[in-house]
């Protein structure tokens, strides 16, 4: 196994992808200082899992990424891949070549890969651990690591041996076992506590479980008794219900028959009522027709008499006219006599008219009396008929009216109560409406204040947030300034610490008496740093030692270790005398002082004075040529030379002053950052407080809005309630008014019906005698009226006739002389009148004959209708009596059916209640209840054994009284048990199971603890064995190699505590030839390096590794010691691969391959390779 290649890309100075092809043997990497040779070692260390940035000579891990140069941009990631030849199978992986890669990005993300597959750092460490390449990387010896080996503690040296021996994996196993043991110990304690607590809880819970178990048995017995009684009740009720259902069916059939017969009777009654309603008007019309025909007969009789009288009168007048023809004078005299008779007749006509009016009035009165009497008789007859026909109906009507009045009264009472309740709701709704209106008004008034509070809180919150943003921006700016100052300080600090040899001696005095740098030992007034640095010149970076031997030793170390050059000042107190300056000049010492090296400082600056500028310096030198003048700007002027101008680089003094200024500025900026953070914290608190106030104000405002919305909704609901309740009041009032009106109507109708019922017994058969008397009187009145009318008509006609005769006589007297034919015309007219009167009399006679016939027919029809009415009234009475009987029976049947239906409904409800009880309370369905717990099933008996178990014994027949006693006994037993925890039994079993489980877990933990302790003991024994074997071999090899490196010298390794092989350290004793010292600190630098190399080589030989990387380990050796070391390296080449970073030519000569590393002008490292062995062979 060996390293086959190493590829670097973006790692430190390797900006471009660079591959080093490595081969077995010795490979030397050479190149000038700063070219990037050590970066190859850092790359190997880094790719194998190094996590410390300081081990890679950086401040942070991102420093390994190429940072860029003036001509090349920085890269975003660093990548290193190392390929290992695994042909011999040294690595526990099924590949002949293993490539380990590591990639780091600037954002801090890191990736590991093994043969291109993503892996963990732990996977890489475990892969390399068995090959002798552990976490401590003892196979890679970097610069300065030799001193670290020698200056390490004994325990750290032990670590090198353990890593080489492969002990670390055993220690990791032990650490893992100890972590498991600690975790298991905590679990063990917790389980012990749980076990104790569970045992404490188990005892009372056991008692509760025993009670619960007994209660469960009693409850089972109780449930069995309840189920059997329930089944018995259900079956009994079901049988009763079936029987009652059969009775109810019979009643329903009888009611159906009665309803059918009642319907037929009512149909017949309705038919009779229809016939009666049809024939009653016919009867009335027939009677009226009879009476009107009688009246018409009387009228025609009068007309006939009048026509006969007129005929007679006209015949007499015609006779008289035929005997006329007298002298006109005589006619005039007769006319005058007729006029006198006319006057008398007119008086008689007036008296006759008066008599006619009286007769007509008497006739009207007689007719009215007769009509009234006939109506009374008809009403009496109808009342008698109604009494005969409708007594039963009237009674039923009265009862129905009374029932309806009672129902209406109840309805009015109910409506009145409902109206009062609705009115109460109206009043309540109005009160609520007014209350909600007031609350809304109050909420609106309060919301104005909430709005102002909300706006104020919002404004305060915005101000606080703006202030916080300003403070955050200021803090960020201050933080950026702070970071810039820290970076600047760090850069300046790095610059100040990398000052060649002086810096190296200040870092490691190596036993020299160094007081420090002159810059650190003096104090300079502000503003005079440049002047002091210019006055001191190159001595500004010098170091101060106590004696000359230390100065010589420092130079020797610088040269031997190739650390560069340094100015060394020797300060011996009292050995330097101060010199006087000419008067009038200001010495630079007035601005520079030192407590430790004041005399040395005085000697250095004794003849140095200060001037304001170069012109003033020139003036001083013209008077005092022996002094050195320095200006505040750093110009140095003497009589023979001058130095100054713009500063190209700063000295340590100026850097120190600049560091002081930057530190003060950093302190101020840090103080500002702290102050701003405090103010930010205060502002955040204020923002939170104002945010809380804002949220509270917003919450109150939202709450107010929600309250107003709720009140508005309630107000709308109240308004709607008022409207609906008012509408309901109006509707109920109208209903009450309608019911009251209906009640009044029914009361009136009831009163009328009651009066009629009372009068039914007082109605007698009507008396027709008075009607006959009235008829006779009417006939006489009619005769008198006709006679009076005829008398009036006759008188009028006589008057007219006399008047006409008189007029005729007068006209005859006047016209007798003129035309005799006019007399003929009058005689013809009278003859025609007589003929007409005769025709009227004859027509009246014929009409009377027809009227008599009609009267006979009307009398016959009236008799027929009266007979039909009598028969119909009798049948109606019979039908109504039967209807009343059937109605009574139907009411009784309906009431019985209704009662039976209510009883059946109650029975069904009881049956349903039993079924619901069975399902809901006892959780059993009806078929199962009947089939398993019916009264036909035998009942098991139970006894309690000595063990407390309840067992079933013999079966006994079901008896209800026994089951009731059993139920009561079970309930008493359950009551005596008291309060029962129904979950106790389950909890007890669960707790017991958990306790058993915890006990098993406890035993498992104890066994695991024993196993872990055995593993730890086994690991300790193994570690002791491996370490002791490795130590003995390393000690043996160290003794041999030390003797080879120091011929004549003596070196050995020894254990600091041999009795404790697990924790003992390893110490080193080294005595070079010719010296008695054994302490490592007293050895010279070269001796220390050789001793460290001897220990490393001893470890290498005791536990060989596939490869070793050595970074300038021979730099401090002389040629003789270098030759000895190279001999050992050639021995190591036989078993391991060596990669050596060197400047020594002799080391290069033994190399098999040579890589030259150089750096171009752009700061990027390039590599050139050369295989030497093949070249030499050629």
Q: Approximately how much helix is present in the residues? A: 55-70%
What portion of the residues fall into strands of 2 or more residues? Answer: 5-15%
Termini, distance in Å?
27 Å
Classify the secondary structure makeup into a structural class: alpha/beta
Major β-sheet, in short? 6 strands, antiparallel
Mean pLDDT: 75
Strand order of the largest sheet: 2-1-4-5-6-7
How many whole angstroms does the radius of gyration measure?
75 Å
Number of strands: 25
How would you sum up this structure, described in words?
A 6-stranded antiparallel beta sheet has the order 2-1-4-5-6-7. A 6-stranded mixed beta sheet has the order 8-22-23-3-24-25, sandwiched between helices. The mean pLDDT is 75. It is an alpha/beta fold. It contains 22 helices and 25 strands. A hairpin with a 2-residue loop joins β6 (110-114) and β7 (117-119). α18 packs across α19 (1085-1102). 68% of the residues lie in helices and 10% in strands.
Core attributes:
single chain; 1178 residues; 6-stranded antiparallel beta sheet; 68% helix; alpha/beta; 22 helices
């Amino acid at each position: 196994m060996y390293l086959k290649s190493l590829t670097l890309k973006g790692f430190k100075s390797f900006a471009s992808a660079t591959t080093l092809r490595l081969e077995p043997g010795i490979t030397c990497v050479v190149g000038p200082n700063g070219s990037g040779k050590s970066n190859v070692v850092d790359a190997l260390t880094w790719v194998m899992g190094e996590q410390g940035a300081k081990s890679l000579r950086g401040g942070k891990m991102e420093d390994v990424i190429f940072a860029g140069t003036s001509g090349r941009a920085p890269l975003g990631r660093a990548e290193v891949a190392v390929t290992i030849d695994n042909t011999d199978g040294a690595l526990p992986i099924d590949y002949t070549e293993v490539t380990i890669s590591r990639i780091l990005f600037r954002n801090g993300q890191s990736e590991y890969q093994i043969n291109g597959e993503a892996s963990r750092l732990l996977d890489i460490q475990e892969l390399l651990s068995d090959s002798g390449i552990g976490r401590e990387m003892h196979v890679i010896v970097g610069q300065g690591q030799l001193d670290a080996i020698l200056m390490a503690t004994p325990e750290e040296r032990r670590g090198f041996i353990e890593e080489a021996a492969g002990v670390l994996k055993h220690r990791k196993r032990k650490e893992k076992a100890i972590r498991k043991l600690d975790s298991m110990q905590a679990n063990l304690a917790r389980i012990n506590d749980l076990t104790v607590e569970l045992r404490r809880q188990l005892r009372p819970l056991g008692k509760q479980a025993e009670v619960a178990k007994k209660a469960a048995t009693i409850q089972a017995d109780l449930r069995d008794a309840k189920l059997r009684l329930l089944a018995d009740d259900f079956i009994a009720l079901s049988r009763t219900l079936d029987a009652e259902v059969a009775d109810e069916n019979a009643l329903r059939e009888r009611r159906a028959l009665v309803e059918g017969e009642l319907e037929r009777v009512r149909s017949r009654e309705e038919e009779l009522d229809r016939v009666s309603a049809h024939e009653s008007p016919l009867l009335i019309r027939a009677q009226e027709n009879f009476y009107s025909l009688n009246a018409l007969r009387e009228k025609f009789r009068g007309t006939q008499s009048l026509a006969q009288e007129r005929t007679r009168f006209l015949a007499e007048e015609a006779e008289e006219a035929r005997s006329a023809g007298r002298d006109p004078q005589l006619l005039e005299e007769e006319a005058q006599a007729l006029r006198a008779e006319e006057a008398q007749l007119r008086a008689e006509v007036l008296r006759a008219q008066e008599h006619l009016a009286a007769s007509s009035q008497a006739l009207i009165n007689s007719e009215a009396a007769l009509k009234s009497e006939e109506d009374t008789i008809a009403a009496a007859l109808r009342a008698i008929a109604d009494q005969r026909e409708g007594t039963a109906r009237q009674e039923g009507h009265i009862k129905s009216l009374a029932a309806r009045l009672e129902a209406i009264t109840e309805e009015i009472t109910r409506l009145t109560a409902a109206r009062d309740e609705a009115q109460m709701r109206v009043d309540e709704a109005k009160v609520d409406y007014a209350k909600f209106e007031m609350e809304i008004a109050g909420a609106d008034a309060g919301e104005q204040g909430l709005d102002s509070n909300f706006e104020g809180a919002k404004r305060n919150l915005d101000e606080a947030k703006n202030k916080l943003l300003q403070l955050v921006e200021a803090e960020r700016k201050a933080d950026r300034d702070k970071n810039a100052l820290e970076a600047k300080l760090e850069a300046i600090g790095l610059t100040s610490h990398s000052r060649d040899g002086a810096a190296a001696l200040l870092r490691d005095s190596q036993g020299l008496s160094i007081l420090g740098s002159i810059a650190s030992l003096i104090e300079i007034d502000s503003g005079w740093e440049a002047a002091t640095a210019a006055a001191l010149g190159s001595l500004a970076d010098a170091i101060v030692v106590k004696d000359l031997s230390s100065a010589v030793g420092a130079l020797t170390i610088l040269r031997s270790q190739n650390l560069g050059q340094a100015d060394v000042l020797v300060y011996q107190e009292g050995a330097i005398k101060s010199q006087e300056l000419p008067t009038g000049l200001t010495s630079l010492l007035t601005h520079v002082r030192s407590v430790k090296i004041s005399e040395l400082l005085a000697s250095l600056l004794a003849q140095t004075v200060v001037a304001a500028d170069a012109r003033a310096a020139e003036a001083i030198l013209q008077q005092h040529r022996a002094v050195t003048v320095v200006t505040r700007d750093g110009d140095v002027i003497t009589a023979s030379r001058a130095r100054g101008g713009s500063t190209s680089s700063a000295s340590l003094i100026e850097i120190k002053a600049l560091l002081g200024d930057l530190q003060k500025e950093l302190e101020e900026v840090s103080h500002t950052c702290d102050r701003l953070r405090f103010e930010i914290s205060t502002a955040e608190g204020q923002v939170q407080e104002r945010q809380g106030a804002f949220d509270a104000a917003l919450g109150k405002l939202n709450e107010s809005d929600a309250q107003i919305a709720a009140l508005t909704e309630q107000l709308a609901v109240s308004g709607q309630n008022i409207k609906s309740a008012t509408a309901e009041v109006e509707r109920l009032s109208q209903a009450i008014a309608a019911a009251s009106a209906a009640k009044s109507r029914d009361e009136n109708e009831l009163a009328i019906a009651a009066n009629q019922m009372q009068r039914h017994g007082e109605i007698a058969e009507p008396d027709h005698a008075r009607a006959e008397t009235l008829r006779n009187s009417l006939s006489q009145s009619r005769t008198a009226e006709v006679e009076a009318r005829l008398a009036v008509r006759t008188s009028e006609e006589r008057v007219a006739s006399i008047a006409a005769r008189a007029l005729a006589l007068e006209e005859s007297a006047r016209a007798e002389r003129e035309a005799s034919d006019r007399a003929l015309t009058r005689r013809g007219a009278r003859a025609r009148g007589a003929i007409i009167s005769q025709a009227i009399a004859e027509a009246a006679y014929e009409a009377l004959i027809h009227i008599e016939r009609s009267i006979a027919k009307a009398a016959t029809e009236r008799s027929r209708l009266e007979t039909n009415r009598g028969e119909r009234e009798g049948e109606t009475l019979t039908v109504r009596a039967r209807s009343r009987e059937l109605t009574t029976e139907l009411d009784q049947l309906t009431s019985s059916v209704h009662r039976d239906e209510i009883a059946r409904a109650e029975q069904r409800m009881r049956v349903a209640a039993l079924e619901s009880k069975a399902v809901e309370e006892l959780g059993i369905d009806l078929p199962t209840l009947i089939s398993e717990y019916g009264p036909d099933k035998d009942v098991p008996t139970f006894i309690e054994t000595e063990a407390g178990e309840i067992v079933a014994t013999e079966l006994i027949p079901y008896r209800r009284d026994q089951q009731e006693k059993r139920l009561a006994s079970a309930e008493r037993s359950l009551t005596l048990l008291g309060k029962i925890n129904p979950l106790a039994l389950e909890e007890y079993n669960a707790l017991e199971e958990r306790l058993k489980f915890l006990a098993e877990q406890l035993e498992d933990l104890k066994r695991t603890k024993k196993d872990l302790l055995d593993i730890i003991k086994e690991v300790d024994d193994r570690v002791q064995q491996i370490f002791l074997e490795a130590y003995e071999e390393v000690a043996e090899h160290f003794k041999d190699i030390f003797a080879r490196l120091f011929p004549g010298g003596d070196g050995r390794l020894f254990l600091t505590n041999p009795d404790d092989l697990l924790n003992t350290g390893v110490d080193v004793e080294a005595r070079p030839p010719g010296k008695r010292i054994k302490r490592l600190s007293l050895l010279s630098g070269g001796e220390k390096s050789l001793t460290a190399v001897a220990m490393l080589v001893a470890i290498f030989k005791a536990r060989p590794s596939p490869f070793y990387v050595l970074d300038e380990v021979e730099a401090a050796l002389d040629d003789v010691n270098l030759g000895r070391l190279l001999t050992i390296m050639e021995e190591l080449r036989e078993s391991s691969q060596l990669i050596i970073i060197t400047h020594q030519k002799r080391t290069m000569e033994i190399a098999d391959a040579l890589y030259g590393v150089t750096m171009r002008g752009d700061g990027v490292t390039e590599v050139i390779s050369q295989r030497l062995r093949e070249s030499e062979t050629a």
